[in-house]
Amino acid sequence: MNAAIYEPATVQDPDRALAPAGPDGQRAWCTVDLAALRHNAALLRARAGVPLVPMVKADAYGLGVEAVARALGAPFATPGEIAGVPDLPTSHDAPWALGVATVREAEQLRAFGATGRLLCTSPVLPEEFDRLVQAHTTPSLHLEADVRAWRALTEAPWHLSIDTGMQRAGVPWRAVEALRDVVAEHPPEGVFTHFHSADRADGTREVQEARFREALARLPLPAGTLRHTDNSWAHVARVPSPWELTRPGIALYGSPSVGPLGLQPVLHVHARVVDLRDVTPGDTVSYEATWTATRATRLATIAIGHGDGYRRALSNRGVALLHGRRVPVVGVVTMDMTMLDVADVPCAVGDVVTLLGRDALGSDPLTLDEVAALGELSPYELLVGWRLRLPRVYRP
C-alpha cells in the first residue's frame, strides 16, 4: 500500500509557495524572528523601567547567542557576519550586561567580538577565576574566601549572590553577617537573589523579597550598589521594578506562560515531508508499535526527530501544522523521523510542516508552552533542545 509515495503533489502551487522559506536542501530548520525578540525586549524594558540583563546562557536558550546578542543591541567590536542579523546602534535600551552561566559561555561571546559587560550568574570554581578575568566577566560570589581570591587577582567588579529560598547558590539570607567584613573591604558592584516561584500568586515572591531587603539592611553596602531580583515572571507581577536591573530569560524568547504581556513567539521549527504511505486498519507505526490504525489512512514522515530536539515525549501526543491545519503525531518519535496522520489534509513530499510557532498561512501558532504541555515537558528544556543539529535561519 505504498503507491501513494509516488503520486504527484496534491497541494496546489500557490499553497506550496506560502511554505516558510528554509535553507536550500535542508530537511528541517529553525527560524528565529529577531524582530519579535527585539519587540519582547523593548516591552520588558518599558515595563521594568530599568536596564535589562538578558539571560543568553545555553546559547541564548538554543537560538544562537551571537545573533541574539547583536539583535538586542549589545556592543561588538566588529560588524556582524551572520546573514540577516543587523547590528543595532547602541541606545539607552541596550542591555546593561549579558547574563551567562559558565566561563565558556563568556569566552565564546568574547571570541565573537562582544565588548560589553558580561555577568556570570552561576557559581564558578576558584580555579576558573583566571579565565573570567581574561574574559572580562563579572562573577557572582558568596564565600569570603572566593571574594578574597578574586580581589587578589583583580580589581574588577563582582556581584554578591544571596539565597532567599531557592537553596541552589548564594549566601543564605540568615548568614549574610558573616560577610560584613569582606563586603566592607571589597564592596560588590551588585547584589541579587533569585525567585523560585515568581509565576505563582502564593506570596512566596513577597517572602523572598522581604528576606532580600533584610539581608541588604544587615550589610555595609555603599550607596549606588546595583540590586536585582526580577526574572521573567516578576515583570508581570509588578510595574516598574523597585531595583536597578532585571534579568529576563524565557520571556525574551516568547513564552506565553509569562503572562498577558503581548510577547511574540521568536522560535519557529519546520521540517519537510519526505515520505507518504497508505496504511490499513490494524497496521502499526514506529518502535514498540504503540499506535495502531483503526481506519484506512495516510501517513506522512517528516524529517525531524529527537536527534533534532523534537522530544520523544511527544510520541502519540504532539501535533503539527500542515497547510494551516493541525495533524497528530502517531507512533513513537524516532531519532531522525516522525510520523503524522495526514488523511484529512492534502499533502505531498516536500511540503513544509511546522512543529513550533507559526506557519506561512498565519494559522494559530503552536506555542512553546502548548507543545511543552503536550509532552509534559518544561518549556525551558523544550526550547534549548533545538540546538542539537538544526540549522537556524534568522529573520531580521
Features:
TIM Barrel; 2 domains; 396 residues; 5-stranded parallel beta sheet; Lyase, Ornithine Decarboxylase, Chain A, domain 1; 18 strands; 6-stranded antiparallel beta barrel; alpha/beta
What oligomeric state is this? single chain
Q: Using the coordinates above, name the CATH class of the largest domain.
A: Alpha Beta
Low-pLDDT windows of residues:
1-19
Termini separation comes to: 45 Å
Query: Strands of the largest sheet, in order across it?
Result: 10-13-16-15-14-17
Summarize the biggest pleated sheet. 6 strands, antiparallel, barrel
Structural class: alpha/beta
Number of strands: 18
Radius of gyration: 24 Å
What is the percent of helical residues?
10-25%
- What is the CATH T-level topology of the largest domain? TIM Barrel
Q: Can you tell me the number of structural domains?
A: 2
Strand percentage: 15-25%
Name given to the CATH homologous superfamily of the largest domain: Alanine racemase
Shape: elongated
- What is the CATH architecture annotation of the largest domain? Alpha-Beta Barrel
Indicate the mean pLDDT.
91
Give, in order, the helices and strands: HEHHHEHEHEEHEEHEHEHEEEEEEEEHHE
Number of helices: 12
What does this molecule look like?
The protein has 396 residues and is of the alpha/beta class. The chain has 2 domains: 3-30 and 265-395, Beta Barrel (Lyase, Ornithine Decarboxylase, Chain A, domain 1), CATH 2.40.37; 34-256, TIM Barrel, CATH 3.20.20. 24% of the residues lie in helices and 19% in strands. The chain is built from 12 helices and 18 strands. The protein has helices at residues 13-17, 34-48, 57-61, 65-71, 103-112, 129-134, 144-153, 180-185, 204-217, 234-237, 368-374, 379-384, and strands spanning 28-33, 98-100, 118-120, 137-138, 140-141, 159-163, 171-172, 190-192, 226-228, 267-279, 284-285, 291-292, 297-302, 319-322, 325-330, 338-341, 352-356, 392-395. The strands form 4 sheets. It has a 6-stranded antiparallel beta barrel with strand order 10-13-16-15-14-17. Helix 7 links the parallel strand 5 and strand 6 (159-163). It is elongated, with a radius of gyration of 24 Å. The two termini are 45 Å apart. The model is unreliable at 1-19 (pLDDT under 50).
